Amino acid sequence: MAGGSPPFIARHTDQLFKTAQLESVKAWIGDPAHGALPLHARVQRAIRQLILDGALDAGRPLPASRALAGSLGVSRDTVEAAYGQLHAEGFIERRVGSGSFVSERAQRLTGGATARRGGSGRHEAPRLSQRGSALFHGGGVRDFLAPSAFAPGVPETRSFPLQTWERLQRQVLKEHGTQALLHSPPQGMEALRGAIADYLNLERGARATPERVLVLTSSQQALTLCANVLLDPGDRLFIEDPAYHGARKAFEAAGLQGVPVPVDADGLRADLLRRAAARPGESARAVFLTPSHQFPTGATLALDRRLAIIEWAREHQGWIIEDDYDSEFHYAGKPTACLQGLDPQERTLYIGTFTKSLFPGLRIAYMLLPPALVAPMTVARTLMDGHSAPIPQLTLARFIEGGHFGAHVRHLRAVYAERRDVLARLLRQHLAGVLEPRVPAGGLQMPCLFVRDLPEREALDAARRAGIDLLGLSALYATSRRQAGFLMGFAAHAPYELDAAVRKLAQVLRTLDRPRAR
What we know:
Number of helices: 19
CATH architecture of the largest domain: 3-Layer(aba) Sandwich
CATH superfamily of the largest domain: Type I PLP-dependent aspartate aminotransferase-like (Major domain)
Number of domains: 3
Helix content: 40-55%
Radius of gyration: 30 Å
Strand content: 5-15%
């Protein structure tokens, strides 16, 4: 027996606890997974689990604390503390002069436990709602948690001015004190909304005021709000083809019917919206766009098409959802103004985020809304997460107002342009005849098409096993006109890291292609 307990104590314990039950408690206590818990908590939870599993029936006497302590090799105080907690939670009753017993109340919790598991110990799959099932089977949106080679959409964070950020955050705490620990208004802190409005007016040609800005935690949250506030299940929505997978999944989860519209070198085919609108039952109530840098092709939406989409929205009282996800990073000439600034009818909802321009852990995004939508969107947001944390908002406001955001973006723009060119050169050097890079005018990733027939799914899996994260292009298409290849992120990797990763990818693809070449 553990701790060398006397035989009479062990026999007394075994009369009340079967050997299997005692061993179960010992195993639970000794499990490394429970090692962070205090010893009395481990004893208490082990006995509680026996009760919940139905292994200890209601009314069953428990061993005396001294006897159980001896069998387990722990102090009597430890067992007393465990029994005391079990009694406080209602799992056991303690009778003076008689001992401790499994509570009759616990029978309501444990009745039928074995039957519910079918006696096998296996848990049945939960019954989900139709919406829950669609969300689960849709697979969600995968974030690239670490900047492994070629993960798209991941910015460079190693050069972020942390000391400046820390200094500004200290200023916020000194000025606001404990007020900064309270809830933020659901629309966002006024200082940040003002800073965002000024930035959008100056840099993106928007028509913004602080009253029209809604601060959020992510662009994905913005897309979910648009899908649920503007449209009803079954409504149709025009969406680029190929398109950002997070947008398509947000719209599908809301029960919307996405109508794919092809993209060419000048962006979304706006003429097809008007053609569809002319046919009964084929129009839509909204259109989703990434006009600055189309995801994933990198195309910029031409001016005539922008104006045509604005006219479509005016004629049909449709909504334009403009996702301007990485417009700060344009490498050839000046970036085009956002579509929202061209829309006099105020049918455009503009989505932006600081995840790409600063760092993913910041979790601050925003929408610039038509005035009539500010209140509905803000109220709807309160049902999601209530508000964004005040301290990062106030720190970011100072970061923007002090010119640090602009300086950081200008620095990264030069860094990313160099890395884009390095990646294109390396691909042509080591993967010519396998991948054709489509060098984008902006953004953090480069679409690369297969030159010859390769199994995209197998290539993605093989690359992942080699430590390389790629996003396949085929899955971004909704129609059969899909093109196979990769979307390759370059922003988070120095030239020497890109060189090593391209060489490794070349080995992976050559190995994959060799049996097919015979």
